[in-house]
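Suppose a colleague, Dr. K., hands you the sequence of a protein chain of 379 amino acids and asks what its three-dimensional shape might be. Before reaching for any lab equipment, you can write down a predicted structure in token form. Begin with the sequence itself:
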Amino acid sequence: MIERLQATMATLEGEVASRTRQLSERVEELKKRSTDERLINQLLTYLQGCESEEEVFRVVSHLFEGWAPESAGLIWRRQEHGGQDLLLVGRWGLADPPVRRMKRRDCFVARQGVVHDRTRAGDSGLCDCMGQGRYAWSICLPIKERGDVIVIIQVMFGLNGSTLPVAEQEALRARLMRIVEPLGLALQNLHLRERLRDQSIRDSLTGLYNRRFLDDRLNTEISRCERNETPLAVLLIDVDYFKNINDTWGHPVGDRVLIKLAALMHAAVRESDLVCRYGGEEFVMVLPDITPDQAIERAESLRQRVEETAFIIDEEGNRLDLTISIGVAWYPDMGHKGGQLIRAADIALYRAKRGGRNRVEVARELAPGEPEESSPPAC
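The predicted structure, expressed as tokens, is then:
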């Protein structure tokens, strides 16, 4: 009787211990889930306010470091505009990659678009970028857009010889995949906003910035030059006899001419310069931190380059001999506002047209009685 009672008590104690262990595991699981939910909510909140990928990657690095202080991580971004390299754009913890840039073809995750993890002991050898040998376990999670991998989040656990049980690896894998999912959506939304914004400030034909963007940007640049006490030049450029091109060859040819001219001008400027299609066959260049003499030299160089360029207009090889006229004005001598500089350059452009075209004219104060035409004649 006593033995049966003792056996029953032992069984009950075992069940209690088992239930207690299960309850503790469940509580721990709920804590982790709560932590993950909090991280996801923080990610969503912060990412909605991000205006650029750089901000996104800073937020992700900061939040991951707080979520798992014992972890280390890297963020890789595919090179923009069709590039084939992966660039290191974010990191946290003690992650110290051997490279900051690698070829997409050398990355298994970038090629296959699948989650990949490895342990220190079971090195798969698939990817050199995962050579963080100090860590017991590392995982790479791809973020895709339109089926292509655009970002890879690499997370590492188990520093300096510590181990990570397989069950814990699987749990971390599931948690990380769940956390990274909203990051992909946030990046897609950001890119969509960027495309919509780009459509509103870009000229659909040439791809250059449009007049709307110029109106905002020019005064911003002038304010910056005012603070830094540096000059700024504005070039107003007009295609000579463009109406004749449309009338003789048709508007499709005229469009091709504008596209090629836009590409030529874009290739002739510095990264800090701004090229806009102002309207029709008129273009504006904003050249910050440049002296008047340098601005005139740049204008003359552009004029000569256009004059020497062959504008092929059809498959038969017919070409146009294109020329441009340019009016030049600069801050602060010709104005302290964007509209004043554009007007001054416009009047100089009118003089270039009136003086025979294919020339550069510099803005100046109007002489008494001189007309104040603000637009060149149609040509």
